[in-house]
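Sanity check

After download, print the first record. It should look like this:
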Amino acid sequence: MKLSSKGRYAVMALTDLAKFDPKGPVSLRDISLRQGISLVYLEQLFLKLKKSKIVNSVRGNKGGYILSKKPSEIKISDVFVAVDEKIKTIGCEKQSKQGCNGRLSKCITHDLWDELGDYINEFFKKKNIGDLINQTKFN
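Expected structure tokens:
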């Protein structure tokens, strides 16, 4: 399975934002410092999250970002879609007639990995940012 840093960091940043959001807009600089994520990288991720209407930006001296909906309404799968993260357990495209190994047939274990991918994606559809807030202990 392949999960890139953009998916992991987007979920981390949104969980941090959800934790501090009730106090007002949260700056990306603060998230960057708390989570150890590059500020430039966060700016790129939050442009995508804003475009997908997961967060809203607030301008001004005390500006930053706020969630556009309750943490419990933000599915992890929606975050992945917003930042172009694809969870893949197979090397080929799911509907492709071509196999994972470049041959005409699919590899002998293709269906196993394909089924695992379905389970993983269903798991992320059931989990939300609110779940993470409730099970995470913050400093």
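If your output differs, re-run the checksum step. Summary of this record's structure: Residues 5-135 form a domain with the Arc Repressor Mutant, subunit A fold (CATH 1.10.10.10).
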